[in-house]
């Protein structure tokens, strides 16, 4: 798969983007760009990275920028468990369990998309877990593994708000919405975590259909058959010992799952929050580690039961095996971490976003016109500030009062925000997990760059933004309730 987009290496791209941020911080500082935060009233001014203070800040934090880069720790923790499962042979055994019958392509495709869409139940863990699993499943089904990575990435990123379950984002956004409504003097009775549930549940199946059609008709034909160096060992029949080991691993996994569920949902559950809820509870905060531990435990049991492992040294080797493949990821992540840290330090993203929001809120248009522009504005701002909570923390206090004056309820504004916030996640280089996506792609195609990723994801983002917005318009105009 050779890309016609002559893009630099992902690490170089993040370095160049950091240079752009440094230059813009200098220009904005020269012209004195400053704004007022709509919630706190705090004056925000762009901080110049080329000033003596900026240089001193960068030199003091260049190492902690990298070590504090959250996705690095998440990737390492996930790789321990899932890498051990692969090294022990358990992953291959699951694929081969059908005794020679390959996976159906449509079943694999739908499963990957659906799992990606509902993965926001556990926050950002979907980005870390789904990519390698999707690549393996696509490869096993005779599809291009890079197509699996892109499909999983788009499903998690563009569907980050859509779900048939309550995700971690719902209570987070609704809390900000309640505060903005309270400050604006509005009724706060209908702004809970379920205020957008009906719309987002329907949106899950809409996005499932969109991503499936684009992948089937565009992505898979464009990538073609995989001719790379990574080979799939085929569907060799499991031996009796391997079947017994796999069964034992599944039993241990189910026992572990039962223990976690009891520790979370029973009356004595120690994994619930101090107030008895799940928001910011040890269960949700530590979900990635819990998943990795469970999968790693199953892999260990399978390894010893199948005869692959004979001592703890074999287990340690299994834990270390994935780390050997993460060298390129660490290089990319280092430069990406500097970019994100510099952007946060300069406050350039907040200043530009608040300036744009102020200009948009001043537009004299009907409610539906402002809502459409609001979705497009959110989708644009999402290219430089992918964090939903960061954007909503100031946009809610601007647009909820403005749209409230023309009769638009806060939960409607929140719903419109979530469409724009999710649709363009797949095309922004500022998403924390882009380095991981590029690293996974390069395992199957060394020539993969951000240009390669953008070449295949822009169509998803554009069509999802358009169709999802049309669904919102068709839902809003008749006055259909968005949720509970």
3D structure, described in words:
The chain is an all-alpha fold and about 475 residues long. The protein has one domain (about 10-65, about 100-235, about 325-475). The chain has 20 helices and 2 strands. The protein has helices spanning about 10-30, 50-65, 70-85, 90-95, 105-120, 125-140, 145-160, 170-185, 195-225, 240-265, 280-285, 285-305, 310-320, 325-345, 350-360, 365-380, 390-405, 410-425, 435-445, 450-475; strands at about 35, 45. It has a two-stranded antiparallel ribbon with strand order 1-2. α2 (about 50-65) runs antiparallel to α14 (about 325-345), α3 (about 70-85) crosses α13 and α7 (about 145-160) runs antiparallel to α19 (about 435-445). The longest helix is centred in the middle third of the chain and has 27 residues, at about 195-225. It starts with 9 loop residues before the first helix and ends in an 8-residue tail after the last helix.
The computed structural class is mainly alpha
What is the domain total for the residues?
1
Largest sheet: 2 strands, antiparallel
Order of helices and strands: HEEHHHHHHHHHHHHHHHHHHH
> What is the overall number of helices?
20
Which stretches of 5+ consecutive residues score pLDDT under 50? 1-5
What is the chains' assembly state?
Answer: single chain
Percent helix among the residues? 55-70%
Care to count the β-strands? 2
Strand order of the largest sheet: 1-2
How far apart the termini lie comes to 47 Å
Question: Any idea what the radius of gyration is?
Answer: 24 Å
The average pLDDT is 90
Q: DSSP strand (E) fraction?
A: under 5%
Shape: globular
């Amino acid at each position: 798969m050779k890309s016609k987009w002559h893009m630099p290496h992902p690490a170089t791209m993040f370095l160049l983007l950091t240079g752009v941020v440094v230059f813009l911080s200098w220009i904005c500082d020269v012209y004195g760009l400053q704004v007022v935060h709509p919630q706190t009233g705090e004056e925000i001014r762009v901080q110049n990275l080329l000033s003596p203070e900026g240089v001193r800040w960068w030199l003091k934090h260049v190492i902690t920028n990298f070590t504090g880069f959250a996705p690095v720790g998440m990737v390492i923790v996930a790789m321990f468990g899932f890498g051990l499962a692969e090294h022990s042979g358990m992953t291959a055994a699951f694929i081969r369990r059908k005794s020679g019958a390959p996976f159906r392509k449509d079943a694999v495709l739908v499963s990957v998309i659906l799992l990606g869409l509902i993965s926001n139940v556990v926050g950002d863990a979907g980005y870390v877990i789904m990519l390698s699993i999707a690549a393996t499943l696509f490869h096993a089904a005779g599809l291009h593994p890079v197509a699996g990575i892109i499909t999983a990435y788009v499903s998690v990123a563009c569907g980050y708000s859509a779900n048939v379950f309550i995700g971690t984002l719902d209570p987070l956004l609704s809390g900000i919405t309640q505060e903005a409504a309270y400050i604006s003097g509005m009724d706060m009775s209908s702004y809970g975590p379920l205020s957008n549930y009906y719309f987002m549940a329907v949106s899950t199946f809409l996005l499932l259909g969109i991503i499936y059609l684009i992948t089937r008709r565009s992505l898979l034909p464009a990538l073609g058959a995989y001719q790379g160096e990574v080979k799939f060992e085929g569907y060799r029949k499991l031996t009796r010992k391997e079947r017994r080991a796999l069964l034992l691993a599944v039993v241990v996994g189910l026992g572990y799952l039962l223990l976690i569920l009891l520790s979370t949902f029973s009356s004595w559950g120690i994994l619930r929050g101090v107030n008895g809820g799940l928001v910011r509870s040890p269960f949700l905060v530590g979900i990635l580690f819990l998943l990795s531990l469970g999968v790693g435990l199953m892999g260990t049991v399978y390894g010893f039961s199948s005869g692959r492992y004979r001592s703890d040294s074999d287990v340690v080797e299994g834990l270390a095996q994935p780390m050997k493949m993460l060298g390129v990821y660490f290089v990319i992540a280092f430069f990406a971490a500097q970019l994100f840290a510099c952007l946060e330090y300069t406050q350039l993203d907040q200043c530009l976003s608040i300036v744009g929001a102020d200009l948009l809120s001043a537009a004299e248009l009907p409610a539906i016109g402002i809502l459409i522009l609001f979705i497009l504005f959110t989708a644009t701002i999402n290219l430089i500030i992918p964090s939903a909570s960061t954007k909503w923390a100031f946009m809610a206090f601007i647009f909820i009062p403005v749209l409230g004056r023309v009769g638009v309820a806060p939960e409607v504004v929140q719903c419109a925000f979530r469409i724009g916030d999710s649709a363009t996640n797949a095309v922004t280089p500022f998403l924390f997990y882009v380095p991981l996506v590029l690293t996974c792609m390069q395992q199957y195609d060394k020539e993969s760059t951000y240009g390669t990723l953008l070449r295949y994801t822009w169509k998803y983002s554009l069509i999802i933004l358009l169709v999802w917005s049309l669904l919102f318009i068709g839902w809003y105009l008749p006055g259909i309730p968005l949720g509970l």
